[in-house]
């Protein structure tokens, strides 16, 4: 049987909506909210890590070569990374 | 039989809490507070109960503090009144949605403005739809009994909802009444330690107060409504148990001379006692009058109310608060909704009484009933009136 993502019927809701499985926020893909996605131009990136620090989703990670990428399963397209990146290495493009 | 003592009702409420083995009480210690908090702090300071007494900087913090403590599995209590309850408003639906069995004593007082502080129900009525169990007491003895029962009701595994005990401010909280305290050993038997459904413990991590978007939120709301409706059954059972152990009987709707009455008066809270004397006077005058008293406000006792008034031709519903620009008082609108589907239902006259502590004498209840009978005979329907207002 396929595991339910969350309770389907009202009587399956845990009292108080208590969640007993720790760290399950990663099962919730906020990436489905986004209308825009960030694109990195690594040639402009100075590897300061500002995008990593400012991302409210915590979904920006550093790659082996020191540049950064967002995990698009969680990136909600807020554009904060692009706004904060002062060398202008990040551009927001429309989803689609 | 337990000994009777003369005691101020607010002090008695604190004494009752002191018998319930609470772990945490949080209150905002200055106005609008009652002697409940003050005396409870003395009980804790004297070591008569082993609890943490937290004096916080506002009622918003008081309710937040007990909610957090309740989440850890503690038995908790808070008390407030009037503006303090209004300040708690934001947190109240969160407490019920998180199914935390917080117990709160409310010394019902008018909300500003104008600034008033005296008794009416304008503080509790805006909290009606917050998902709390709400009961009203009529005297000191009921205040003690319902306070102790509230912990058992709130913490019951099939309930797990916050519960407030409404005690008319001044009219009750500041009166000295004869009160019989139950035996502590029996209270311990009636109210064993809380067995929480979940606690905040690092070894067993849980998330409380989680996020829920439109894909699950309506299911959560339905679950909360069902839990509150279902609590009536548990409340009835706990009242039966109380009756067996302590001899006093409680029902969601209580009646006095109402079985054969043509005209019924409905009250909620301390005015029921004065109204009872009014019914005696009316009966002496040959008017077939009776009284229905609403003890349980949430969950609303629809069936019990229908039964209690089914033979009456006229029902005079008293309200201690106003739904401004609406149908009159909140109790009357609930009663009307409850009876709307009935084939035969009484004419309903809504009287808004005792606002901001305005005294209601026996003669006022007599006059209200006589007026309703006269209006009924002439076929005059009045939606609602502000009883005794000059002009
Ligand atoms: S903020 Fe811009 S420059 Fe700094 S690491 Fe991120 S992409 Fe590179
Ligand atoms: S758009 Fe927002 S969510 Fe996505 S990576 Fe940038 S900061 Fe993070």
Task: Write a brief structural summary.
The complex is a heterodimer of chains A (96) and B (391). With 96 residues, chain A is of the alpha+beta class. Chain A is 10% helix and 17% strand.
Topology at a glance:
The complex is a heterodimer of chains A (96) and B (391).
Chain A: E1 36-40, H1 50-54, E2 60-62, E3 68-70, H2 80-84, E4 90-94
Chain B: E1 4-8, H1 9-18, E2 24-27, H2 35-45, E3 52-55, H3 59-71, E4 76-80, H4 82-88, H5 92-97, E5 103-108, E6 133-136, H6 140-155, E7 163-168, E8 176-180, H7 184-190, H8 217-246, E9 253-256, E10 263-267, H9 271-284, E11 289-294, E12 296-298, H10 302-309, E13 314-319, H11 330-339, E14 347-352, H12 362-378, E15 384-386
Parallel strand pairs in B: 2-3, 2-4, 4-5, 5-7, 6-7, 10-11, 10-13, 13-14, 14-15
Antiparallel strand pairs in B: 1-8, 6-12, 9-11
Helix pairs in contact in B: 1-2, 1-6, 3-4, 9-12
Measured by DSSP, the beta-strand proportion of chain A falls in 15-25%
Total number of domains of chain B: 2
Count of helix runs of chain A:
2
Helix content of chain A: 10-25%
Structural class of the helices, strands and pairings of chain B? alpha/beta
CATH superfamily heading of the largest domain in chain B = Thiamin diphosphate (ThDP)-binding fold, Pyr/PP domains
